[in-house]
Amino acid sequence: MARSAFAAAVISVVLAPAITWAADENPRLPRQQWSFDGVFGTYDRASAQRGFQVYKEVCSVCHPVKHLHFRDLADIGYSEDEVKAIAAGYQVTDGPNDQGQMYQRPGRPSDPIPGPFPNDQAARAANNGALPPDQSLIVKARAGGPDYVYGILTGYREAPPGFGMLEGMNYNEFFPGHQIAMPPPLSDNAVTFADGTPATVPQMAHDVVTFLTWAAEPRLEDRHRAGFKVTLFLVVAAGVFYAAKRKIWAAIH
Description:
- The protein is mostly helical.
- The protein folds into 2 domains: 28-68 and 113-218, Cytochrome c-like domain (Cytochrome Bc1 Complex, Chain D, domain 2, Orthogonal Bundle); 221-253.
- The chain has 8 helices and 4 strands; from the N terminus they run αααββαααββαα.
- A two-stranded antiparallel ribbon has the order 1-2. The chain has a two-stranded antiparallel sheet with strand order 3-4.
- It is globular.
């Protein structure tokens, strides 16, 4: 018995640091209140537009949104003229022209939103070998979805004492392994919102995640509406069938 107790004590001493380390490796993501959550969820258009501004002025320096066209921005509340103005603010590669040369022109609503690099090799070369991921589907591609992306954007900290940081890496509380090549992308007042919303890091992170969630799932509201209609139909149908059943069996009883 004494020998068993001693073995249990040794095991607990050996395993306790490992258990603590494992718990620390996967901290709980910060749970946010999102307007698009739930069966009645909808996108907050004002937040999505602020998020597009954050993407355009901050994130687009490194990250593309390969699956978005300028005309898609009408879905988050931009008018036709605003979409045209946004598109015209970009230079898009087109061609070849009559001389067989590619050329630059102002963007049009029908154009895909251009990325910061012409190809993946150029992106890697500009980022020390790391390929900045496409952000148009990133919310759907990461476990934890919007909460995970929000956590990464707001999770930069000073590394704990004794934590072995690799050169050129940054400590992030919610990134697997806690070491991420991307420097902190957001800082207070990095943008100026036209509606006067204070541009704090949590606010910008919340807004850009709203925009990226819409980019990854633009038909979410349609699905929610269809789901509500189907649920309502099933409830009504169940009531009709129940009333019919009672009427049929009432005569027998």
